[in-house]
Write a structure and sequence with these properties.
With about 475 residues, the chain is mainly alpha-helical. The chain is about 50% helix and about 5% strand. Helix 11 crosses helix 16, helix 14 crosses helix 16 and helix 15 packs across helix 16. The protein is globular.
């Protein structure tokens, strides 16, 4: 009889409670299932799969040092578990709870039934401060910090080797996963995650608050841990623990000149914010594909303009800062939060595109795609939650504010590399300067005002509706 530890979005050995708890009972099969049907879903691409493969290779090496390598299986999870249960008389499966896309949600429903029928206990343990079956939203913050203040779990000192053979990891191409070319992306793995965290705390965090919104500096000043959290190469609790230890050590050594407490506190606040949004998807899984507030159904669905959508996707809108951000995102798999919000706001409000029709384009190019954050943020920037402040970004103002000298624009919009700096944000105002850069595809002021008028009018109508009150009760408390 053996224990199965099913690794999912938690590809690490440190602070891994299922691995820790299962190893105290008996022999462990560390299992990862590569599910071809998952990778056929429209919200994923090869950049995420390649990061996954690197993470699995790193995790395999870590587990080998403990005595038992990672066991890879490729195929349908139900069929794989049936075979393992029958072959090894499995009575316990251990994993973290998973709050991911609708496909994994439906798969887990089937597996719960399978385990129940076969008298197998599925021990699903909470992760990253997200609470399953949360009764009162107002309790969430207390529960979150209660979890984050615990010490991380130690990994087992040794695992007993089991006579079981792993399968090879298939390539993205062999699985038919969509390929999206890029110039650079982060490399996956637990070791990489700790290196990135250490460099942030000790070298890059000082100007975090100052540079968090600038696409020019945020790639260095932000933690860059989002992808490692998305794949579970490091846990949120571990980051809280290491951050608090970093603060304490600096206090003891009286070297607080090397640490910016304001930046560190802002960073910790963002960590909480991350789980705050994942909790929303945990509480209401259908926000992946359905407006949070039904009053917004039909608002944009019939006005989708394919030509405008294509221009936005390819960074050819005629607004240099928007295009620079999109091209940077496509080529690196990452951009800071404010620029993500601006890109979505431009698509949803200036171009009046339905968020449900462009959500998968963005999810595929974010290496750090996290459904809980992704879909709620799309709805927030589109104004379809019914409870959040209507916020429509002015891309021209953002351009002046965040890239005053046009350095970021010139880096990514090569058509404007020789354009005068004083006209870089609004090149259409310098007709004498010849360039092969495109003209603006819409009137920014007019479309922003039209969107604001519609969204504010509708929100005023539903402000005190029963549906609005129910949403507030569920997601705010």
């Amino acid at each position: 009889m053996v224990e199965i530890v099913w690794f999912k979005r938690d590809l690490r050995i440190k602070d891994h409670q299922p691995l820790h708890d299962a190893s105290l009972i008996g022999s462990v099969i560390p299992l990862y299932i590569i599910e071809p049907d998952l990778w056929k879903q429209p919200d994923v691409s090869d950049r995420q799969y390649d990061f996954l493969c690197e993470s699995l290779e790193d995790l395999t090496q870590s587990l080998q040092k403990l005595g038992q390598e990672m066991i890879i299986r490729v195929g349908n999870a139900e069929e794989i578990f049936i075979n393992l249960i029958n072959q090894y008389a499995v009575k316990n499966v251990w994993s973290h709870q998973e709050t991911w896309n609708d496909w994994t949600y439906q798969r887990d429903i089937k597996l719960r039934k399978l385990f129940r029928v076969n008298n197998v206990n599925w021990n699903e343990l909470p992760i990253n401060g997200v609470a399953r079956l949360l009764k009162y939203r107002k309790d969430w913050a207390r529960l979150f910090y209660q979890e984050m203040n615990k010490e991380p779990f130690q990994h087992p000192s040794k695992l007993k080797k089991i006579n079981i053979v792993s399968e090879d990891i298939p390539s993205a191409k062999s699985l038919g996963i969509e390929k999206i070319n890029y110039l650079f992306r982060q490399k996956g793995g637990e070791m990489q995650a700790y290196q990135v965290m250490d460099s942030f705390l000790n070298e890059r965090s000082y100007d975090y608050s100052k540079n968090i919104s600038s696409p020019l500096y945020s790639a260095d000043s932000c933690s860059r841990l989002s992808t490692y959290l998305a794949f579970g190469n490091i846990s949120l609790k571990q980051i809280f623990y290491e951050t608090n230890k970093f603060i304490d050590e600096n206090k003891k050594n009286k070297s607080m000149t090397n640490i910016n407490i304001r930046s560190i506190n802002a960073f910790k606040s963002r960590l909480r914010w991350r789980s705050h949004f994942i909790q929303k998807l945990e509480d209401q899984p259908n926000i992946e594909y359905k407006n949070l507030h039904s009053a917004y159904d039909g608002l944009r669905e019939n006005d989708f303009n394919e030509e405008l959508y294509y221009k936005w996707c390819t960074g050819q809108t005629g607004f240099p800062f928007v295009d620079a951000c999109m091209r940077s995102l496509i080529n690196t798999g990452w951009i800071n939060f404010r620029m993500r919000a601006m890109l979505v706001s431009f698509a949803a409000n200036n171009l009046w595109l339905d968020w449900k029709k462009f959500s998968h384009f963005l999810s595929k190019i974010f290496t750090d795609y996290e459904p809980g954050i992704h879909y709620y943020q799309l709805q927030m920037q589109s104004g379809t939650t019914g409870i959040n402040t209507v916020r429509i970004y002015n891309p021209i103002k953002q351009s002046y504010d965040q890239d005053q000298d046009g350095i970021f624009i010139k880096r990514w919009v090569s058509e404007l590399e020789n354009h005068p700096i004083e006209m870089i944000h609004e090149p259409w105002k310098s007709p004498l300067f010849k360039s092969n850069y495109v003209e603006p595809i819409i009137n920014e002021v007019e479309t922003r005002k039209n969107a604001a008028s519609k969204l504010y009018a509708l929100k005023a109508q539903i402000r005190n509706s029963d549906n609005t009150k129910k949403i507030i009760q569920k997601h705010v408390g």
